[in-house]
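Re: [help] complex structure
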Amino acid sequence: MLRGLNLEVGCGERVALLGPSGAGKTTLLRVINGVIVPRSGSVEVQGVNLRNLEPRAQRQLRSRIGFVHQDHSLVSNLRVLHNVVAGRLGQRGFWSSLRGIVRTSQADLLEVHRILERVGIGDKLYQRTDSLSGGQQQRVALARALFQQPKMLLADEPVASVDPTRSRDLLSLMTELAAEEGWTLVVSLHDFELAREFFPRVIGLRHGTVFFDGLAADLTPLMVAELYSLEGTADEQRI
Amino acid sequence: MSKEFKTLPTPPRLPTRRARILLGILLAAVLAFVGLDLSLFDLVPSGGGLELAGKFFSAAFQPAWQYQDASNLPADISPFLLQVGRGLWTTLTYAVAAISLSIVGGMVLGLLASASFWERRSGTWGVVRWSVRVLIAAMRSIHEILFAVVFLATLGITPAAAVLAIAIPYTGTLAKVFSEMLDESPRAAADALAYLGATPLQVFFLGRLPNAIPDIAAYSFYRFECAVRSSAVLGFFGFTTIGLYLRQSFENLHYREVWTYLYALILVVALLEVWSSQLRRKFVA
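Output below.
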Protein backbone atom coordinates (compact mmCIF):
# COMPACT_ATOMS: atom_id res chain seq x y z
CA MET A 1 0.00 0.00 0.00
CA LEU A 2 2.75 2.43 0.87
CA ARG A 3 5.13 3.16 -2.01
CA GLY A 4 8.25 5.24 -2.47
CA LEU A 5 8.17 6.77 0.98
CA ASN A 6 11.20 8.63 2.15
CA LEU A 7 10.46 10.34 5.42
CA GLU A 8 12.47 11.45 8.35
CA VAL A 9 10.97 12.61 11.61
CA GLY A 10 13.28 14.25 14.09
CA CYS A 11 13.42 13.64 17.80
CA GLY A 12 10.77 15.69 19.61
CA GLU A 13 9.07 16.75 16.38
CA ARG A 14 5.27 17.04 16.16
CA VAL A 15 3.81 15.76 12.92
CA ALA A 16 0.23 15.38 11.68
CA LEU A 17 -0.61 12.79 9.03
CA LEU A 18 -3.43 13.86 6.72
CA GLY A 19 -5.11 12.15 3.84
CA PRO A 20 -8.31 10.42 2.72
CA SER A 21 -9.34 7.04 4.13
CA GLY A 22 -7.21 4.31 2.67
CA ALA A 23 -4.30 6.63 1.93
CA GLY A 24 -2.06 4.63 4.25
CA LYS A 25 -2.01 6.71 7.45
CA THR A 26 -2.74 3.77 9.74
CA THR A 27 -0.36 1.54 7.82
CA LEU A 28 2.42 4.10 8.19
CA LEU A 29 1.87 4.31 11.95
CA ARG A 30 1.98 0.51 12.20
CA VAL A 31 5.19 0.44 10.21
CA ILE A 32 6.74 2.87 12.68
CA ASN A 33 5.99 0.68 15.72
CA GLY A 34 6.92 -2.51 13.90
CA VAL A 35 3.50 -4.17 13.73
CA ILE A 36 3.82 -4.16 9.94
CA VAL A 37 7.20 -4.86 8.35
CA PRO A 38 7.48 -3.43 4.84
CA ARG A 39 8.27 -5.83 2.01
CA SER A 40 11.13 -3.66 0.84
CA GLY A 41 13.02 -0.67 2.07
CA SER A 42 14.20 0.00 5.57
CA VAL A 43 12.74 1.58 8.67
CA GLU A 44 14.83 2.83 11.54
CA VAL A 45 13.25 3.95 14.80
CA GLN A 46 15.24 5.25 17.75
CA GLY A 47 18.39 3.91 16.13
CA VAL A 48 16.96 0.39 15.70
CA ASN A 49 16.47 -1.16 12.28
CA LEU A 50 13.05 -2.81 12.32
CA ARG A 51 13.89 -5.51 9.78
CA ASN A 52 14.37 -9.02 11.22
CA LEU A 53 13.88 -7.98 14.83
CA GLU A 54 13.67 -10.79 17.38
CA PRO A 55 10.25 -10.82 19.13
CA ARG A 56 11.96 -9.76 22.36
CA ALA A 57 13.75 -6.82 20.78
CA GLN A 58 10.55 -5.90 18.99
CA ARG A 59 8.64 -5.79 22.29
CA GLN A 60 11.40 -3.74 23.87
CA LEU A 61 11.15 -1.21 21.07
CA ARG A 62 7.37 -1.08 21.30
CA SER A 63 7.54 -0.50 25.04
CA ARG A 64 9.31 2.77 24.18
CA ILE A 65 6.59 3.81 21.72
CA GLY A 66 3.19 4.86 23.04
CA PHE A 67 0.15 4.26 20.85
CA VAL A 68 -3.28 5.88 21.13
CA HIS A 69 -5.97 4.26 18.99
CA GLN A 70 -9.21 5.67 17.67
CA ASP A 71 -11.30 3.76 20.24
CA HIS A 72 -11.90 0.41 21.98
CA SER A 73 -8.26 0.20 22.99
CA LEU A 74 -8.98 -0.11 26.72
CA VAL A 75 -10.14 -3.22 28.55
CA SER A 76 -13.68 -2.03 29.12
CA ASN A 77 -14.57 -3.91 32.30
CA LEU A 78 -11.37 -3.14 34.18
CA ARG A 79 -10.98 -0.08 36.36
CA VAL A 80 -9.25 3.02 35.00
CA LEU A 81 -6.35 2.37 37.40
CA HIS A 82 -5.67 -1.05 35.92
CA ASN A 83 -5.84 0.13 32.34
CA VAL A 84 -3.24 2.76 33.13
CA VAL A 85 -1.01 0.28 35.00
CA ALA A 86 -1.09 -1.86 31.83
CA GLY A 87 1.06 0.84 30.22
CA ARG A 88 4.16 -0.82 31.64
CA LEU A 89 3.39 -4.38 30.50
CA GLY A 90 6.25 -4.20 28.04
CA GLN A 91 8.70 -3.52 30.85
CA ARG A 92 7.37 -6.04 33.36
CA GLY A 93 7.32 -9.81 33.55
CA PHE A 94 4.10 -11.80 33.49
CA TRP A 95 3.71 -12.32 37.25
CA SER A 96 4.69 -8.83 38.17
CA SER A 97 2.18 -7.42 35.68
CA LEU A 98 -0.53 -9.74 37.01
CA ARG A 99 0.22 -8.57 40.54
CA GLY A 100 0.00 -4.99 39.29
CA ILE A 101 -3.65 -5.65 38.46
CA VAL A 102 -4.62 -7.82 41.41
CA ARG A 103 -2.79 -5.77 44.05
CA THR A 104 -1.45 -2.49 42.74
CA SER A 105 1.57 -1.27 44.68
CA GLN A 106 1.33 1.99 46.61
CA ALA A 107 4.00 3.54 44.39
CA ASP A 108 2.09 2.67 41.20
CA LEU A 109 -1.15 3.87 42.73
CA LEU A 110 0.25 7.27 43.60
CA GLU A 111 1.90 7.64 40.22
CA VAL A 112 -1.25 6.67 38.32
CA HIS A 113 -3.27 9.12 40.37
CA ARG A 114 -0.81 11.91 39.67
CA ILE A 115 -0.97 11.12 35.94
CA LEU A 116 -4.77 11.02 35.94
CA GLU A 117 -4.81 14.40 37.68
CA ARG A 118 -2.54 15.68 34.92
CA VAL A 119 -4.94 14.54 32.18
CA GLY A 120 -7.87 15.97 34.13
CA ILE A 121 -9.67 12.84 35.39
CA GLY A 122 -8.06 12.17 38.77
CA ASP A 123 -11.45 11.39 40.31
CA LYS A 124 -12.02 8.47 37.91
CA LEU A 125 -9.17 6.36 39.34
CA TYR A 126 -11.39 3.52 40.57
CA GLN A 127 -14.18 3.80 37.98
CA ARG A 128 -14.94 1.04 35.54
CA THR A 129 -13.52 2.17 32.22
CA ASP A 130 -16.69 1.58 30.22
CA SER A 131 -18.60 4.00 32.46
CA LEU A 132 -16.53 6.87 31.03
CA SER A 133 -17.39 9.01 27.99
CA GLY A 134 -15.45 8.63 24.75
CA GLY A 135 -13.38 11.72 25.44
CA GLN A 136 -12.57 10.59 28.98
CA GLN A 137 -11.55 7.16 27.69
CA GLN A 138 -9.08 8.82 25.32
CA ARG A 139 -7.66 10.62 28.34
CA VAL A 140 -7.21 7.23 30.01
CA ALA A 141 -5.39 6.04 26.88
CA LEU A 142 -3.15 9.10 27.15
CA ALA A 143 -2.59 8.40 30.85
CA ARG A 144 -1.59 4.83 29.96
CA ALA A 145 0.94 6.24 27.50
CA LEU A 146 2.27 8.61 30.18
CA PHE A 147 2.68 5.74 32.63
CA GLN A 148 4.49 3.79 29.92
CA GLN A 149 7.09 6.58 29.72
CA PRO A 150 7.82 6.22 26.00
CA LYS A 151 10.12 8.31 23.87
CA MET A 152 7.53 8.71 21.14
CA LEU A 153 3.77 8.75 20.87
CA LEU A 154 1.84 7.56 17.83
CA ALA A 155 -1.88 8.25 17.62
CA ASP A 156 -4.24 6.86 15.01
CA GLU A 157 -7.24 9.16 14.56
CA PRO A 158 -7.38 9.82 18.31
CA VAL A 159 -10.25 12.29 18.02
CA ALA A 160 -12.39 10.63 15.34
CA SER A 161 -14.85 9.36 17.98
CA VAL A 162 -14.81 12.53 20.08
CA ASP A 163 -16.98 15.60 19.54
CA PRO A 164 -15.34 18.74 18.02
CA THR A 165 -14.88 20.88 21.17
CA ARG A 166 -13.47 17.97 23.12
CA SER A 167 -11.18 17.03 20.21
CA ARG A 168 -9.54 20.43 20.55
CA ASP A 169 -9.03 19.96 24.29
CA LEU A 170 -7.64 16.47 23.79
CA LEU A 171 -5.20 17.50 21.04
CA SER A 172 -4.03 20.49 23.02
CA LEU A 173 -3.45 18.22 26.02
CA MET A 174 -1.61 15.73 23.82
CA THR A 175 0.70 18.35 22.33
CA GLU A 176 1.35 19.90 25.75
CA LEU A 177 2.31 16.50 27.15
CA ALA A 178 4.55 15.84 24.17
CA ALA A 179 6.36 19.10 24.83
CA GLU A 180 6.69 18.37 28.55
CA GLU A 181 7.88 14.80 28.11
CA GLY A 182 9.95 15.45 25.02
CA TRP A 183 7.95 12.95 22.98
CA THR A 184 8.17 12.71 19.24
CA LEU A 185 4.53 12.94 18.23
CA VAL A 186 3.00 11.48 15.06
CA VAL A 187 -0.77 11.78 14.86
CA SER A 188 -3.10 10.90 12.00
CA LEU A 189 -6.09 13.19 11.65
CA HIS A 190 -9.04 13.73 9.37
CA ASP A 191 -9.48 17.38 10.09
CA PHE A 192 -7.07 19.68 8.29
CA GLU A 193 -7.95 22.64 10.55
CA LEU A 194 -6.99 20.70 13.66
CA ALA A 195 -3.74 19.62 12.04
CA ARG A 196 -2.84 23.21 11.21
CA GLU A 197 -3.73 24.40 14.67
CA PHE A 198 -1.65 21.93 16.66
CA PHE A 199 1.12 20.63 14.44
CA PRO A 200 4.01 22.55 12.94
CA ARG A 201 4.61 19.89 10.30
CA VAL A 202 2.03 18.13 8.15
CA ILE A 203 2.53 15.08 5.94
CA GLY A 204 -0.25 14.55 3.40
CA LEU A 205 -0.60 10.99 2.15
CA ARG A 206 -2.47 9.94 -0.97
CA HIS A 207 -2.46 6.56 -2.69
CA GLY A 208 0.19 5.46 -0.23
CA THR A 209 2.69 8.09 -1.30
CA VAL A 210 3.67 11.43 0.10
CA PHE A 211 1.59 14.18 -1.50
CA PHE A 212 2.77 16.97 0.75
CA ASP A 213 5.43 17.27 3.40
CA GLY A 214 6.16 20.60 4.95
CA LEU A 215 5.12 23.34 7.28
CA ALA A 216 1.44 23.39 8.10
CA ALA A 217 1.46 27.11 7.34
CA ASP A 218 2.44 26.40 3.73
CA LEU A 219 -0.53 24.14 3.10
CA THR A 220 -3.08 26.03 1.00
CA PRO A 221 -6.83 25.25 0.89
CA LEU A 222 -6.41 24.31 -2.76
CA MET A 223 -3.81 21.69 -1.89
CA VAL A 224 -6.06 20.29 0.82
CA ALA A 225 -8.93 20.07 -1.64
CA GLU A 226 -6.70 18.20 -4.04
CA LEU A 227 -5.44 15.91 -1.28
CA TYR A 228 -9.00 14.81 -0.51
CA SER A 229 -10.44 14.96 -4.03
CA LEU A 230 -12.04 11.77 -5.22
CA GLU A 231 -11.08 12.37 -8.82
CA GLY A 232 -8.68 9.94 -10.32
CA THR A 233 -8.80 6.21 -10.47
CA ALA A 234 -11.91 4.17 -9.77
CA ASP A 235 -9.61 2.11 -7.63
CA GLU A 236 -9.32 4.89 -5.12
CA GLN A 237 -13.07 5.37 -4.97
CA ARG A 238 -13.64 1.79 -4.05
CA ILE A 239 -11.36 2.24 -1.07
CA MET B 1 -36.41 8.19 -14.42
CA SER B 2 -36.29 5.16 -16.66
CA LYS B 3 -32.53 5.15 -16.24
CA GLU B 4 -32.91 4.60 -12.51
CA PHE B 5 -35.08 1.58 -13.13
CA LYS B 6 -32.47 0.18 -15.44
CA THR B 7 -29.77 0.50 -12.80
CA LEU B 8 -31.88 -1.25 -10.15
CA PRO B 9 -29.62 -4.03 -8.83
CA THR B 10 -30.76 -7.55 -9.62
CA PRO B 11 -32.21 -9.22 -6.52
CA PRO B 12 -30.24 -12.11 -5.07
CA ARG B 13 -31.22 -15.58 -6.22
CA LEU B 14 -33.96 -17.33 -4.30
CA PRO B 15 -32.55 -18.67 -1.02
CA THR B 16 -32.60 -22.24 -2.23
CA ARG B 17 -29.83 -23.27 0.16
CA ARG B 18 -31.83 -22.27 3.18
CA ALA B 19 -34.95 -23.98 1.82
CA ARG B 20 -32.96 -27.16 1.24
CA ILE B 21 -31.64 -27.17 4.81
CA LEU B 22 -35.11 -26.60 6.28
CA LEU B 23 -36.52 -29.36 4.09
CA GLY B 24 -33.73 -31.66 5.26
CA ILE B 25 -34.52 -31.02 8.92
CA LEU B 26 -38.21 -31.65 8.28
CA LEU B 27 -37.42 -34.87 6.44
CA ALA B 28 -35.21 -36.06 9.30
CA ALA B 29 -38.05 -35.46 11.75
CA VAL B 30 -40.52 -37.41 9.61
CA LEU B 31 -38.03 -40.26 9.21
CA ALA B 32 -37.48 -40.36 12.97
CA PHE B 33 -41.21 -40.68 13.61
CA VAL B 34 -41.63 -43.35 10.95
CA GLY B 35 -38.52 -45.20 12.10
CA LEU B 36 -39.66 -45.29 15.72
CA ASP B 37 -43.13 -46.38 14.67
CA LEU B 38 -44.56 -43.56 16.75
CA SER B 39 -48.20 -42.75 16.65
CA LEU B 40 -50.15 -40.17 18.54
CA PHE B 41 -52.39 -42.91 19.96
CA ASP B 42 -49.42 -44.09 22.04
CA LEU B 43 -49.76 -40.90 24.03
CA VAL B 44 -53.10 -42.02 25.44
CA PRO B 45 -52.39 -44.31 28.42
CA SER B 46 -54.10 -47.67 28.72
CA GLY B 47 -56.73 -48.32 31.43
CA GLY B 48 -54.40 -49.13 34.37
CA GLY B 49 -51.93 -46.45 33.29
CA LEU B 50 -54.66 -43.87 33.28
CA GLU B 51 -55.64 -44.71 36.84
CA LEU B 52 -52.01 -44.55 37.98
CA ALA B 53 -51.51 -41.22 36.27
CA GLY B 54 -54.62 -39.91 37.97
CA LYS B 55 -53.37 -40.99 41.39
CA PHE B 56 -49.95 -39.57 40.78
CA PHE B 57 -51.12 -36.15 39.62
CA SER B 58 -53.85 -35.77 42.25
CA ALA B 59 -51.13 -36.31 44.89
CA ALA B 60 -49.55 -33.11 43.57
CA PHE B 61 -52.16 -31.10 45.48
CA GLN B 62 -51.43 -32.76 48.80
CA PRO B 63 -47.67 -33.21 49.26
CA ALA B 64 -46.73 -35.18 52.37
CA TRP B 65 -45.42 -33.57 55.57
CA GLN B 66 -44.58 -36.93 57.12
CA TYR B 67 -44.16 -40.53 55.98
CA GLN B 68 -47.32 -41.74 54.28
CA ASP B 69 -47.12 -45.21 55.84
CA ALA B 70 -45.71 -45.11 59.37
CA SER B 71 -46.31 -48.84 60.01
CA ASN B 72 -43.53 -50.23 57.86
CA LEU B 73 -40.59 -47.97 58.72
CA PRO B 74 -37.16 -48.94 60.03
CA ALA B 75 -36.73 -47.99 63.69
CA ASP B 76 -33.83 -45.62 63.24
CA ILE B 77 -35.28 -43.54 60.39
CA SER B 78 -35.29 -39.76 60.82
CA PRO B 79 -38.45 -37.63 60.51
CA PHE B 80 -39.65 -37.15 56.94
CA LEU B 81 -38.89 -33.45 56.54
CA LEU B 82 -35.39 -34.01 57.95
CA GLN B 83 -34.94 -36.72 55.35
CA VAL B 84 -35.98 -34.25 52.62
CA GLY B 85 -33.52 -31.68 53.95
CA ARG B 86 -30.74 -34.23 54.13
CA GLY B 87 -31.42 -35.34 50.55
CA LEU B 88 -31.28 -31.77 49.35
CA TRP B 89 -28.09 -31.11 51.27
CA THR B 90 -26.21 -34.07 49.74
CA THR B 91 -27.58 -33.15 46.32
CA LEU B 92 -26.18 -29.64 46.71
CA THR B 93 -22.82 -30.70 48.16
CA TYR B 94 -22.22 -33.18 45.33
CA ALA B 95 -23.19 -30.48 42.81
CA VAL B 96 -20.90 -27.87 44.42
CA ALA B 97 -17.96 -30.27 44.58
CA ALA B 98 -18.47 -31.36 40.97
CA ILE B 99 -18.91 -27.86 39.54
CA SER B 100 -15.87 -26.53 41.43
CA LEU B 101 -13.69 -29.20 39.87
CA SER B 102 -15.30 -28.56 36.49
CA ILE B 103 -14.76 -24.81 36.58
CA VAL B 104 -11.05 -25.21 37.36
CA GLY B 105 -10.61 -27.96 34.77
CA GLY B 106 -12.82 -26.15 32.27
CA MET B 107 -10.80 -22.94 32.60
CA VAL B 108 -7.48 -24.70 32.04
CA LEU B 109 -8.71 -26.80 29.10
CA GLY B 110 -10.79 -23.91 27.76
CA LEU B 111 -7.73 -21.65 27.62
CA LEU B 112 -5.69 -24.32 25.87
CA ALA B 113 -8.50 -25.02 23.38
CA SER B 114 -9.12 -21.38 22.46
CA ALA B 115 -7.62 -19.88 19.34
CA SER B 116 -6.95 -16.57 21.10
CA PHE B 117 -4.57 -18.16 23.62
CA TRP B 118 -2.28 -19.44 20.86
CA GLU B 119 -2.46 -16.28 18.78
CA ARG B 120 0.91 -14.63 18.18
CA ARG B 121 2.62 -17.98 18.71
CA SER B 122 4.13 -20.39 16.25
CA GLY B 123 1.79 -22.72 14.38
CA THR B 124 3.29 -25.91 15.83
CA TRP B 125 1.45 -25.23 19.09
CA GLY B 126 -1.70 -26.03 17.11
CA VAL B 127 -0.99 -29.70 17.91
CA VAL B 128 -1.57 -28.99 21.61
CA ARG B 129 -4.74 -27.04 20.87
CA TRP B 130 -6.25 -29.77 18.71
CA SER B 131 -5.34 -32.55 21.14
CA VAL B 132 -7.08 -30.63 23.91
CA ARG B 133 -10.11 -30.14 21.68
CA VAL B 134 -10.30 -33.88 21.01
CA LEU B 135 -10.02 -34.55 24.75
CA ILE B 136 -12.82 -32.07 25.45
CA ALA B 137 -15.04 -33.66 22.81
CA ALA B 138 -14.43 -37.09 24.34
CA MET B 139 -15.25 -35.85 27.85
CA ARG B 140 -18.57 -34.35 26.93
CA SER B 141 -19.70 -37.00 24.46
CA ILE B 142 -20.39 -39.38 27.36
CA HIS B 143 -23.32 -38.55 29.62
CA GLU B 144 -22.85 -38.28 33.38
CA ILE B 145 -25.17 -41.22 33.90
CA LEU B 146 -22.89 -43.48 31.87
CA PHE B 147 -19.90 -42.25 33.86
CA ALA B 148 -21.88 -42.95 37.03
CA VAL B 149 -22.48 -46.55 35.93
CA VAL B 150 -18.78 -47.03 35.25
CA PHE B 151 -17.64 -45.45 38.52
CA LEU B 152 -20.27 -47.38 40.47
CA ALA B 153 -18.68 -50.58 39.21
CA THR B 154 -15.14 -49.46 39.96
CA LEU B 155 -15.44 -47.22 43.03
CA GLY B 156 -18.75 -48.33 44.50
CA ILE B 157 -21.35 -45.97 45.96
CA THR B 158 -18.93 -43.32 47.19
CA PRO B 159 -19.18 -39.54 47.02
CA ALA B 160 -16.04 -39.54 44.86
CA ALA B 161 -17.79 -41.70 42.25
CA ALA B 162 -20.78 -39.35 42.03
CA VAL B 163 -18.65 -36.20 41.95
CA LEU B 164 -16.33 -37.55 39.27
CA ALA B 165 -19.27 -38.80 37.19
CA ILE B 166 -20.68 -35.26 37.08
CA ALA B 167 -17.36 -33.41 36.92
CA ILE B 168 -15.92 -35.12 33.84
CA PRO B 169 -18.65 -34.34 31.27
CA TYR B 170 -19.24 -30.92 32.86
CA THR B 171 -15.54 -30.06 32.53
CA GLY B 172 -15.78 -30.89 28.83
CA THR B 173 -18.86 -28.73 28.30
CA LEU B 174 -17.47 -25.80 30.29
CA ALA B 175 -14.13 -26.01 28.48
CA LYS B 176 -15.82 -25.93 25.08
CA VAL B 177 -18.06 -22.98 25.93
CA PHE B 178 -15.29 -21.08 27.79
CA SER B 179 -12.98 -21.41 24.79
CA GLU B 180 -15.68 -20.00 22.52
CA MET B 181 -16.36 -17.12 24.92
CA LEU B 182 -12.66 -16.29 25.06
CA ASP B 183 -12.43 -16.25 21.27
CA GLU B 184 -15.51 -14.03 20.98
CA SER B 185 -14.30 -11.49 23.51
CA PRO B 186 -13.34 -8.19 21.81
CA ARG B 187 -9.79 -8.18 20.47
CA ALA B 188 -9.15 -4.47 19.98
CA ALA B 189 -8.06 -3.93 23.59
CA ALA B 190 -5.79 -6.97 23.44
CA ASP B 191 -4.19 -5.69 20.24
CA ALA B 192 -3.57 -2.37 21.93
CA LEU B 193 -1.60 -4.14 24.66
CA ALA B 194 0.49 -5.95 22.06
CA TYR B 195 1.23 -2.52 20.53
CA LEU B 196 2.85 -1.36 23.74
CA GLY B 197 5.15 -4.34 24.00
CA ALA B 198 3.17 -6.90 26.02
CA THR B 199 4.06 -10.58 25.64
CA PRO B 200 1.46 -12.97 24.17
CA LEU B 201 0.74 -14.29 27.68
CA GLN B 202 0.15 -10.78 29.04
CA VAL B 203 -1.99 -9.90 26.04
CA PHE B 204 -4.20 -12.92 26.65
CA PHE B 205 -4.56 -12.73 30.41
CA LEU B 206 -4.86 -8.95 30.76
CA GLY B 207 -6.43 -8.00 27.42
CA ARG B 208 -8.61 -10.90 26.37
CA LEU B 209 -9.64 -12.78 29.51
CA PRO B 210 -11.10 -9.88 31.58
CA ASN B 211 -13.76 -9.16 28.97
CA ALA B 212 -14.85 -12.79 28.87
CA ILE B 213 -15.14 -13.16 32.66
CA PRO B 214 -18.78 -11.95 33.05
CA ASP B 215 -20.00 -14.44 30.42
CA ILE B 216 -17.88 -17.20 31.91
CA ALA B 217 -19.28 -16.53 35.38
CA ALA B 218 -22.88 -16.45 34.16
CA TYR B 219 -22.50 -19.68 32.22
CA SER B 220 -20.77 -21.41 35.15
CA PHE B 221 -23.73 -20.52 37.31
CA TYR B 222 -26.16 -21.95 34.79
CA ARG B 223 -24.14 -25.16 34.67
CA PHE B 224 -24.26 -25.28 38.47
CA GLU B 225 -28.06 -25.45 38.24
CA CYS B 226 -27.68 -28.31 35.76
CA ALA B 227 -25.26 -30.03 38.15
CA VAL B 228 -27.90 -29.88 40.89
CA ARG B 229 -30.32 -31.72 38.62
CA SER B 230 -27.68 -34.28 37.58
CA SER B 231 -26.76 -34.83 41.21
CA ALA B 232 -30.43 -35.46 42.03
CA VAL B 233 -30.77 -37.97 39.19
CA LEU B 234 -27.68 -39.90 40.36
CA GLY B 235 -29.71 -40.76 43.46
CA PHE B 236 -31.59 -43.25 41.29
CA PHE B 237 -28.35 -45.29 41.19
CA GLY B 238 -28.07 -45.40 44.96
CA PHE B 239 -26.03 -42.30 45.75
CA THR B 240 -27.62 -40.62 48.77
CA THR B 241 -28.93 -37.57 46.95
CA ILE B 242 -32.60 -36.65 46.86
CA GLY B 243 -33.14 -38.95 43.89
CA LEU B 244 -32.57 -41.99 46.10
CA TYR B 245 -35.43 -41.08 48.47
CA LEU B 246 -37.56 -40.05 45.54
CA ARG B 247 -37.15 -43.43 43.90
CA GLN B 248 -37.90 -45.28 47.13
CA SER B 249 -41.12 -43.31 47.67
CA PHE B 250 -42.07 -43.84 44.05
CA GLU B 251 -41.52 -47.60 44.25
CA ASN B 252 -43.63 -47.74 47.42
CA LEU B 253 -46.37 -45.86 45.55
CA HIS B 254 -46.12 -43.02 48.11
CA TYR B 255 -46.86 -40.33 45.55
CA ARG B 256 -47.47 -37.58 48.09
CA GLU B 257 -43.91 -38.05 49.37
CA VAL B 258 -42.68 -37.99 45.77
CA TRP B 259 -44.29 -34.60 45.29
CA THR B 260 -42.73 -33.21 48.46
CA TYR B 261 -39.29 -34.18 47.14
CA LEU B 262 -40.10 -32.69 43.75
CA TYR B 263 -41.35 -29.41 45.23
CA ALA B 264 -38.25 -29.18 47.42
CA LEU B 265 -36.04 -29.63 44.36
CA ILE B 266 -38.01 -27.07 42.35
CA LEU B 267 -37.70 -24.62 45.24
CA VAL B 268 -33.93 -25.02 45.40
CA VAL B 269 -33.47 -24.59 41.64
CA ALA B 270 -35.75 -21.53 41.70
CA LEU B 271 -33.76 -19.96 44.55
CA LEU B 272 -30.52 -20.60 42.67
CA GLU B 273 -32.04 -18.96 39.62
CA VAL B 274 -32.98 -15.84 41.62
CA TRP B 275 -29.48 -15.67 43.11
CA SER B 276 -27.75 -16.20 39.76
CA SER B 277 -29.81 -13.59 37.97
CA GLN B 278 -28.90 -11.09 40.69
CA LEU B 279 -25.23 -11.91 40.27
CA ARG B 280 -25.52 -11.67 36.50
CA ARG B 281 -27.05 -8.21 36.75
CA LYS B 282 -24.20 -7.13 38.99
CA PHE B 283 -21.54 -8.57 36.70
CA VAL B 284 -22.84 -7.48 33.34
CA ALA B 285 -24.08 -4.02 34.37
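Chain B has one domain: 78-284.
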